[in-house]
Design a protein that fits this description.
The complex is a heterodimer of chains A (about 350) and B (about 280). With about 350 residues, chain A is α+β, with helices and mostly antiparallel strands. Chain A is built from 8 helices and 20 strands. In chain A, a hairpin with a 2-residue loop joins strand 9 and strand 10. The longest helix of chain A is centred in the middle third of the chain and has 18 residues. By secondary structure, chain B is mostly helical. Chain B has a two-stranded antiparallel ribbon. The two termini of chain B are about 45 Å apart. The chains are: A alpha+beta (about 350), B mainly alpha (about 280).
């Protein structure tokens, strides 16, 4: 039995279905991210676990107990908000101690726990400051300490990094992950940022239009997307319409150019319309050794992105992106030149819908 | 060069209008002060103040109005804080209606409201559509009369009270703070008392002081219901004395200024709420 289990969850507001038949089992100590575009139901699902929304149907089981209809203050769940939500009238220590004092824990235990939490987030020196005297990153760390002080059964994070600037976002992200690992706490993290989800999670739930599109490890989600939506949403991807030539050998034609794929979708027949998808970094310029998938192309444009150089090429009539790592000795082709690129058979994904 | 002469002229004009505005406020006040000090011929003295404060009527009405002001403030807060909170939290669509209702006091003349109160509460109160009488006319007892007066005052102060509190609610993210408290185990009472109210400190104070000013200065309803309030007393005093009302008027001004000062001190110390950001 999973530690946190959401079964057949649906949520309907006045006239809109926001979450449809959502199923997920989370193990104790796992870090799971809900990833999807805005309006995909990820925040609503999280809020149902927190108790701020009641599912229209379905059950939520936490550690063997049905919490579906429990009020938020009856659940032992820690919540982190995008807007930090620290109490402006309280100091850092008072914020952290708020939940403990509500539970009427002895004052000595409260003080001890506050000190423990402050050292966990490395803000010991700021104990007596008010939230408005702290930076955004510091405020969010206090919010984390406040949520953890109560020893919650689950930690829920609703886009906690979205209001922060890029550098803080990356460092706080690894700090959150490190703390979660250290305490072994179960965490559910909502984000629309695929890089964030890929870097922080044990598992990712990619959501679209209120349903789970795919559940898997970051590695699976990125390398083996099951649907075109997942493939497109996570990472950059070239997709093109193609025709199935030989389902047995995985031979496909796109604009008359032949590709071989090691990935096959069941039930494809010869002549079926399919979509092929290839990640930009899977292309490379063709060398002598490579045999499969060597195709002619024209160099259209070259964009320098720092660590990566993105080259736009045309294969047949379709534009593709190709990424190659930057190094100072890189010899780049000239724009307008003809060249040959290649990718492995495994790199060619076949998707049955766009 | 043309531009600079224009600028100088513009500055001169703005200075002129500014001074005119200042004089408009200061002159009458100064005249009142000056007049209140001239009860004795050819001499500046505080005798008018001494006399005014020594009159037992002053203390009686002043204390009465103060007590009623405090009760009105409490009633207003109990009415407005939960209403405004709930509207911000759950019923944003009701905001227009409530705003409209609170402004009615500005549209309906106090004298109309006073007579309305008398005609409604002057009759014995019955269970609707029956002849079962619940109470005698409220106006027959001092408690009943004071109750009606407080209700009238509350309505008069509602526009200012509601706006003060609602503005305060807007500066803190009520919803997120509520949810954060809930997930930490707080119940509604704790949320309102420990989280919402402390962050509304400044707006509660400004609402309270504005209510105070309205109640202490209110003449119409107090006169119609014939309660021993401060403003009718001041008005009555003005009918047969010259210097004492001026002295009391000036003293009231000082009191209001002191109140304003308190608002400034309490709200100026640190930002009321850093709220979401």
């Amino acid at each position: 039995m999973a530690y946190l289990s959401l079964s057949n969850i649906s949520k309907q507001f006045a006239d809109a279905v926001v979450v449809q038949d959502f199923n997920l089992d989370i193990e104790k100590g796992e870090f799971v991210s809900f990833l999807g575009p805005s309006g995909c139901g990820k925040t609503t699902t999280l809020r149902m676990v927190a108790g701020f929304e009641v599912p229209t149907s379905g059950r939520i089981i936490l550690d063997g107990a049905d919490i579906t209809d429990k009020a938020p203050n009856q659940r032992n769940v820690g919540m982190i908000f995008q807007a930090y939500a620290l109490f402006p009238n309280m100091t850092v220590s008072q914020n952290i101690g708020f939940g403990l004092r509500i539970r009427k824990e002895p004052e000595s235990a409260v003080k001890e726990r506050i000190a423990e939490m402050l050292s966990l987030i490395h803000l010991e020196k700021h104990a007596d400051k008010y939230p408005y005297q702290l930076s955004g990153g510091q405020q969010q760390r206090v919010a984390l300490a406040r949520a953890l002080a109560n020893h919650p059964q689950v930690l829920l994070l609703d886009e906690p990094l979205s209001a922060l600037d890029a550098k803080i976002r990356v460092s706080l992200r690894s700090e959150i992950r490190a703390i979660q690992r250290k305490l072994g706490i179960t965490a559910v993290f909502v984000t629309h940022d695929q890089e964030e989800a890929l870097s922080i999670s044990d598992r990712i739930v990619v959501m679209n239009e209120g349903r789970e599109e795919q559940i898997g490890t970051p590695f699976e989600i990125y390398n083996f997307p099951k649907t075109a939506f997942v493939a497109n949403f996570v990472g950059t991807l070239n997709t093109a319409e193609a025709e199935m030539v030989d389902p047995g050998k995985g031979i496909i034609k796109m604009d008359g150019v032949q590709f071989e794929s090691a990935n096959q979708v069941d039930g494809q027949m010869k002549g079926d319309k399919v979509f092929i998808a290839i990640r930009p970094e899977r292309f490379s310029f063709a060398s002598e050794q490579k045999k499969a998938n060597v195709v002619d192309c024209t160099i259209e444009n070259i964009t320098f992105l720092g660590s990566v150089v993105r080259i736009q090429i045309t294969i047949g009539k379709t534009k593709f992106n190709m990424d190659t790592f930057n190094n100072p000795f890189l010899e780049l082709p000239k724009i307008g030149n003809k060249s040959q690129v290649t990718c492995s058979r495994e790199a060619v994904l076949i998707l049955d819908r766009k | 060069m043309k531009f600079f002469s224009w600028l100088r002229r513009a500055r001169l004009w703005s200075g002129f209008w500014y001074m005119l505005g200042v004089l408009y406020f200061i002159l009458p006040l100064y005249a009142t002060l000056d007049f209140s000090l001239r009860i004795e011929r050819d001499k500046i003295s505080l005798l008018a103040y001494q006399k005014a404060f020594a009159d037992p009527g002053f203390l009686q009405t002043f204390v009465y109005s103060n007590i009623l002001a405090i009760i009105t403030i409490l009633v207003g807060l109990i009415l407005v804080v939960p209403t405004s909170y709930w509207i911000r939290l759950r019923l944003p669509e009701a905001r227009r209606v409530v705003e409209y209702v609170t402004t009615l006091a500005l549209v309906i003349p106090a004298i109309v409201m006073g007579f309305g109160l008398v005609s409604v509460f002057g009759a014995p109160i019955k269970v609707p559509f029956t002849s079962i009488q619940l109470t005698d006319s409220l106006l027959n007892s001092p408690v009943g009369t004071n109750f009606i007066v407080v209700m009238g005052y509350t309505v008069l102060a509602l526009p200012l009270m509601y706006r003060s509190i609602d503005t305060g609610m807007r500066t803190i993210d009520v919803r997120v703070l509520t949810e954060a408290s809930q997930s930490l185990g707080a119940n509604w009472f704790t949320i309102i008392v420990k989280v919402i109210l402390p962050n509304l400190r400044a707006s509660i104070l400004s609402g309270a002081l504005l209510t105070f000013a309205i109640v202490v200065g209110e003449v119409t309803i107090s006169s119609i219901l014939n309660v021993p309030a401060f403003s009718p007393y001041l008005w009555l005093l003005g009918q047969h004395k010259a210097y004492e009302p001026a002295a009391l008027s000036f003293a009231s001004f000082l009191l209001i200024w002191a109140s304003m000062g308190i608002i400034q001190i309490v709200t100026g110390g640190r930002p009321q709420a850093a709220g979401a950001k």
